[in-house]
Description:
By secondary structure, this protein is of the alpha/beta class. The protein is built from five helices and eight strands, in the order αββββαβαβαββα. The protein has two domains: about 1-30; about 40-180, Glutaredoxin (3-Layer(aba) Sandwich).
Amino acid sequence: MHITLSKQLFFITTLFTLLALITFKANAGDATQALPRGIITVDGRDAPALVLNDINGDSYDLSQSRGKWVFAHFWASWCGPCRREMPTIQAIAAEFKNTGLTIVLINTAEDEDTVFDFLGSVAPDMNTLLDSDGLATEQWQPRGLPSTYFVDPEGKLRYIALGGRPWDKGAYLGFLKGLIK
Length: 181
């Protein structure tokens, strides 16, 4: 049976089109979902050092969290959005405990009594690192408070969330769960 050149070209074109569609559909499931409002992709540079004591006097070093995503949240008691957001962080803390996501709170340049009173009233189950002199905050350079940085398991900055977010709801909770899949 003899196939004409035009039929051969049609067959080859159809075959390549089908292969392209199959490849596109297979990769579409891997594509990054649209980020929730207020979460911005950053350039993947190394995260600044973060070595601070928490409110109990225990030391924390960001480098010890390698292998996990880190939710590094900068806040202050005088910040209205921080006050509204903190209970949502407390709400997710238990869900993400012992997972691939470590939640780290960093208070910016306030005294221990102020921090203790604030957490006692809005998020009594949370602990925070104390950046009493503000030097760690200067290294990280948040554009405002609250600011949440997402450090990947290799220690690279991947996302930042500017302003308060309802972390225990909808797209934000889905975003967090997606990080540790």
